[in-house]
Fold this sequence. Notes:
Distance between the termini: 69 Å
Strand order of the largest sheet: 1-2-3-4-5
Shape: globular
CATH superfamily of the largest domain: FAD/NAD(P)-binding domain
CATH topology of the largest domain: FAD/NAD(P)-binding domain
Low-confidence stretches: none
Number of helices: 13
CATH architecture of the largest domain: 3-Layer(bba) Sandwich
Mean pLDDT: 94
Structural class: alpha/beta
Radius of gyration: 23 Å
Largest sheet: 5 strands, mixed, barrel
Number of domains: 3
Helix content: 25-40%
Oligomer: single chain
Amino acid sequence: MSQYDIIVIGGGPGGYVAAIRASQLGAKVCLIEKDKIGGTCLNRGCIPTKAIIASTNLYEKIKKAESFGVSCGTPAIDLNKVIERKNKIVEKITKGVEFLLKKNGVDVVYGEAKVLGPGKVEVKKSDFVPRGLSPRDSSKSLVVSRKIVLATGSSPISIPGIGFDGKKFVSSDDLLEATEIPPKLDIVGGGVIGLHFAQIYSALGSEITIYEALPEILPGVDEEIVAMVKRILKRRKVTVLTDTRFDQAKSCGKSLICVGRTPNTTGLEDLGLKMEKRSVWVNEKMETSIPGIYAVGDLVSPKMLAHIAYEQGVVAAENAMGKNKSFTYDFIPFGIYTHPEIGSVGLTENEARSKFGDKIKIGKFPFAALGIAQAMSEIEGFIKVISDEHNKILGVHILGPEATTLIGTATIAAKQGLKVDQLAESFQAHPSYPEGLQEAALNTLKRGLYSLN
């Protein structure tokens, strides 16, 4: 039996960050992981999808080289090499995280955890043992501690009656290893995962149909951006069917099922934790209903984003070590790597109108009116800034080049309670994409210099 100050269950974004932060604060920490360090984000989500998108985006840009005055013949893409590159990137980052854990003195135990009660965890030996570790490193059976942080993540949801077979009906995990391009790909689910794979496989030449049971794709994204995304998808010959349930009997190709994810609660059943639907309930301190047990990430969050898990991991670790830190869902940014990109933070226009009525102010600026966008031939999209009648920033929504970078500035402004006029007066370098954010802010105040107010 091994004794620790804190046990962290799950080595994804929330878990490994919690483990590192707790160790920095002086705790003796044990991190239990049944598979690979990095969780879904690093191994099967954020990083691998962006690595593949980087390849397909470059492929599409090379096909337009003639318009830049560059002749390079007919480009070709080798999906085997794309996947090989992706795997190397994932492996490199995984080793980096493993090094950070080791450097911070975190003991990593590979196995399946079952929480027997506060401070007591049973570990079943895992089939997965990383290279360089001896069997003894994964054979521990009982670990005890003063506090526990649950960071068990989530798993893809399947559709009733349709199981993942890895061939005809596949999950996003399956497609991240696929080296053949399907002539036809049905994507069941019009959320972020579905749109990312639509981006990838439409670039590769697959015939794409997106099935979404809800009235609209990309729930939670500003409605004006969604409308423009649908027009772009149509131009890319991607068919989008909303208010439509997928009929497996009519499927004549490969079908990606990405209708959401569900929290992983296996091994937590005996605790009797308070739940909110499928998620574990926590307060703003990331404390569960059981004293001494904290929970973070996809296990608790209504928004399953890696950066939320990071922050919650820090909050849980610090509170477990006696500090007093809170987490809030106010002004959580997100990025979607369609082409062009989407970046958003705060209330959408409809949400703002529902809360504040017609007193809200809206300023927009199109990328087509931006010099750098014209120079780079990236003119599609716009920047929208929403404020209340007192000029407090309520939301910023971007569809266009570098949107996932630009949203960082908007997030800082919104989280720090800046007014639109303060954002507007922070003038930007020329020529640059941030000029568009400044101009959208000016337009909110009806002071735009390069567009009609």
